From TrEMBL:
SUPFAM superfamilies: UDP-Glycosyltransferase/glycogen phosphorylase (SSF53756)
One GO MF term: quercetin 7-O-glucosyltransferase activity
Family: Belongs to the UDP-glycosyltransferase family.
Gene3D superfamilies: Glycogen Phosphorylase B (3.40.50.2000)
Name the UniProt record assigns to this protein: GLYCOSYLTRANSFERASE
UniProtKB keywords: Glycosyltransferase, Transferase
């Protein structure tokens, strides 16, 4: 803590950018919560779409050093994305980058580091353009990572594609 009852000074500003889908937002928030409890001098800005903020914005269990920032709903709704999943993926890959950069320009404190979901490869490009380091968070299990990492071996050894007939 700072002087008698004041908040600690901010030593680092971390921007967290999860992929806007179930199974991605919660792990990113959990990481931010785990770090923030141990390091209260780190400010986390957790970026979500306006729709996702409506889903999680009332979360009062988050530490005080985590704040939300939103970008516009520039992608199809989470509630109907299954109707056109390829369209949803394309929108995430092509329509979120510009509003994300505009948000970076509006933030009061400069961002020291970005933690981004591995699926959001465009965040690395933004970080590179702005000289902001980017860490990638893989939100799935180590088993899924291993399957993806060794996919060529599965094909080479005839384990993929799978014959179901």
């Amino acid at each position: 803590m700072g002087a008698a009852g004041t908040e600690p000074a901010i030593a680092l500003h971390v921007l967290a950018m999860p992929y806007p889908g179930r199974g991605h937002v919660n792990p990113m928030m959990n990481l931010c919560k785990l770090i923030s409890v141990r390091k209260p001098d780190i400010l986390f800005t957790f970026v979500v779409t306006e729709e996702w903020h409506g889903f999680i914005g009332s979360d009062t269990r988050k530490p005080a050093n985590i704040c939300f920032a939103t970008i516009p709903n520039c992608i199809p709704s989470e509630l109907g994305r299954a109707k056109d999943f390829p369209g949803f993926l394309k929108a995430v890959a092509t329509k979120m980058e510009a509003p994300f950069e505009q948000l970076l320009d509006r933030l009061e404190l400069p961002v020291d580091v970005i933690i981004a979901d591995t699926y959001l490869d465009w965040v690395v490009l933004v970080g590179n353009r702005r000289n902001i380091p980017v860490a990638s968070l893989w939100t799935m299990s180590a088993t899924v990572f291993s399957v993806f990492h060794h996919f060529e071996l599965l094909k080479q050894n005839g384990h993929f594609p799978v014959e179901i007939s």
